[in-house]
Amino acid sequence: MPVIRPHPPTGVEDALLGMVAGRFSEDPPIKVHSGIQRILKARRAMVEAKTADWALGEALAFGTLLMEGYHVRLSGQDVERGTFSHRHHVLHDQDVDGKTYNALQNLSSTQQKYSVSNSSLSEFGVLGFELGFSQHNPNSLVIWEAQFGDFFNTAQPIVDQFISSGQDKWIRQSGLVMLLPHGFEGMGPEHSSARMERFLQMCNDNEDVINMDLIDEQLADANWLICNVTTPANMFHVLRRQMHMKFRKPLVIFTPKSLLRHPKARSSFDEMVTGTTFQRVIPEQGSPKNVKKTIFCTGKVYYDLVEEREKRGLNDEVAITRIEQLHPFPYDVIEEEVKRFPNSQIAWCQEEHKNAGGWAYVKPRLSNISKKNVGYAGRDPAASAATGNKKAHKDEIRRLMDDAFTL
Questions:
Q1: What is the DSSP string of 132-199?
Q2: For residues 393 and 272, what is the distance between their CA atoms, to the nearest angstrom?
Q3: pLDDT tens, N- to C-terminus, the chain (407 residues)
Q4: Distance CA 143, CA 347 (A)
Q5: How far apart are CA 223 and CA 219, in angstroms?
Q6: From CA 116, how far away is CA 113, in angstroms rounded?
Q7: Are 202 and 158 a contacting pair, CB within 8 Å?
Q8: Which DSSP state fits 121?
Q9: Pairwise CA distance, residues 194 & 397, whole Å
């Protein structure tokens, strides 16, 4: 078995992180709304503590790439502010109509250009344009963000015909990034699921082949990269990886909603400095002594599982491992985690319905590498992406947790 080579280096010098974070959080040279003043004050407190939330982690990725000479381009509905009012990259003067300020465009006289623009409600046209831009300029980090993850559905032909298969059909590389807000928060069927299962179904790997190739070879062979990251640091690294790979691949990220402000979804600057890199899998963080069950999961449900495990007093008996990159599937790291708890049951937990999410893709791969039966903890199959009834939503979560922590 070959030695697994690390990812492209994506950490940066602490001084560069501090400079970008400081400029991003400082008071702008315009009069901004009092609500923005509070946000900037909170950002400065995080910077002083050398801690990043989701918005700061993303901004640090953009800012450091800009300082390294890469153009960054972000489009989509409400991206300047952020659909969930977390980004605030374009600030508006409260006294002068039409006057704005963009801190990431004012980092240094030597930086590259940062383009951020709200787009019209025409996903097909905008996503197609951004795909073409990414092919024309491979040294631009080109990002399209859906207002909610399922809004990509009106751009499905672009995804099917051009993004997922473009390199196979036309030998054209693209580093386009799709940010798809995804997560079950009780908001109903039209604002919950980015349809992860559709993207995983179009991946070009073979579930019957355990791929232990070198990491860069796995990335080069993949038709695209599918991630569901859970920390600001990993978001920082996966975005920077797009520019630091020696080739270009489309990247689909299922981005969070509630995690944008979750007190546990924070990263230290130490996780982004020189010597750090993207984590395809984040292993169990504790030191459980008598593990009877190892739960693999991806995305926001991890934080719900950790909270529930604490409530039930099962910290020593249940290990929880996050898969941050679903495709290419990280067999090597998962194998190490399986060996770490050799006598435990294996289960996959997801908040999506059984006929959706990562279950159909992950189950055979997890079974092949662990040589064990893989249990399921999640919602039952359903035609609708999510319930619109708050009580039903809470009942589903309770049953999901009961299934996950049954030993």
A1: HHHHH-TTEEEEEE-SSGGGGGGGHHHIIIIITTHHHHH------EEEEE---SS--TTSS---HHHH
A2: 36
A3: 344 455 778 999 999 999 999 999 999 999 999 999 999 999 999 999 999 999 999 999 999 999 999 999 999 999 999 988 899 999 999 999 999 999 999 999 999 999 999 998 899 999 999 999 999 999 999 999 998 878 888 999 999 999 999 999 999 999 999 999 988 988 888 888 989 999 999 999 999 999 888 888 899 999 999 999 999 999 999 999 999 999 999 999 999 988 889 999 999 999 999 999 999 999 998 877 899 999 999 999 999 999 999 999 999 999 999 999 999 999 999 999 999 999 999 999 999 999 999 999 999 999 999 999 999 999 999 999 888 888 999 999 999 999 999 98
A4: 34
A5: 8
A6: 10
A7: no
A8: S
A9: 19
* 343, two tokens: 């006598």
- Specify the amino acid at residue 282: I
Q: How far is CA 340 from the centre of its chain?
A: 26
How many angstroms separate the Cα of 156 from the Cα of each of 46, 124, 152, 212, 292?
A: 39, 8, 6, 32, 42
Other Cβ atoms less than 10 A from the Cβ of 99: the count is 12
Distance CA 269, CA 371 (A): 38
